[in-house]
What does this fold into?
Amino acid sequence: MEQNTLVDQNFPLFSKSHKPSKKPTPAFTTNPTASTTTTTATITKDLSSDTLHLEKMEVSDHDSSAPTTFAALGLAEWAVKTCRELGMRKPRQVQSHCIPKILDGRHVLGIDETGSGKTAAFALPILHRLAEHPFGVYALVVTPTRELAFQLAEQFRALGSCLHLRIAVVVGGMDMLQQTKNLMSRPHVVIATPGRIKVLLEENPDIPPVFARTKFLVLDEADRVLDVGFQEELKFIFQCLPENRQNLFFSATTTSSLQKLHERYQDKLYVFEAYEGLKTVETLKQQVIFVPKKVKEVYLMHILSKMEDMGIRSAIVFVSTCRDCHRLSLMLEVLDQEAAALYSYKSQIQRLDALHQFKSGKVSILLATDVASRGLDIPTVDLVINYDVPRFPRDYVHRVGRTARAGRGGLALSIVTQNDVDLIREVEALLEKQLEMVEYKENDVLSLMKKVFSAKNVAEMKMVDDGFEEKAKERKKQKLKMLAEKGLLKKRSKKRKRNLEEKNSD
It folds into this structure.
């Protein structure tokens, strides 16, 4: 399903550009040693420069024109050495094509599949330029989720390990006073979610000047950041940044918002697109198992109990709702099955702790809502289980992309009930392939029924005791209020109203 596009004509990213200044000024001087550079690129003080032309690069998996070493990209020796120490032997496609353009001072839109190395494609050239002219805040990276923000910080620290890099992570759920202090100390790189950075910029007049000389704005997972839900935040953020900044957009999927971006600014943007439509990698084995809805938890427990026999080190179980994620985590706890749970109702400290337990190998199972479906890079994930088939096929692709990354193999298993048949058919239509159907010996599975049902009952009683339902209602109320304030609540369509009326009459 296509995401909503931004329609506000005054929105800075999509506003019609005015006439360019007569004498555009260089953004950065091209590294003369870069073997891939032939001209010096220039940009004006906004995105309206006529000196930058669209070069839409669509590549195959075997593009012989791309540089094959990090040194050939024009990166400094320290950056090349760091890549080597991190086991990055040669640049990936998105890195080979985008890094030289970023070093040239170009605005860049990079679209490549999950696990393709997009973070290094923008982090390395930013750090290269920062090392030449160090000051803070040099770059602002905006990403849609808190977990991605902390992961990006880890990757920046690793790539800039020899630079004494100072990074601030600005996300919701953390102490705002401490975040304000961190920003006032002018770190080199700020990594933020849209909502929290907007609040800090808006409420403290001392914060906007911190970004007065920022050279780079990066939108990571740009398809989601450019979703209409973040329009108000982005508009405010852009107003606080210098107009002569360099804009970098990276995404695993192309959407109408990104198409609109390079269609509107086709004479000012370098576009690298290795995207071939929503697809899954060849090294991913995809299976479905059809089960009766009432024994869904029993089948899940049976699958998890077979992980060691299958040689599976770790698994992510995707669940559609926070309620079910919490319930399953309590159920597994009763069954003495160690697992971490990651969903939005948890505090940020609890979310980070769950992710750390899973990434460190302390627990081999992570229960998660779609908050974990984007961008998280955990190399040892061998299995992704769709406990709930996602409502939108696009989300299926992002979920299963958590395994079989960077050429490794992996398994995705979807538990399908009678209510999910149409959803899984939509997934198959999107992928243009039929998923493999598997079966388990029913007697083996159902032998766990009594134990699982008992644990399920205990879990539901615990949810009553800890007041989960009341907390959930309060959070939903807050979310609806926020959406209403943004003007994003729309009247139900006639069809939706009719469906609701029919449901209530049953």
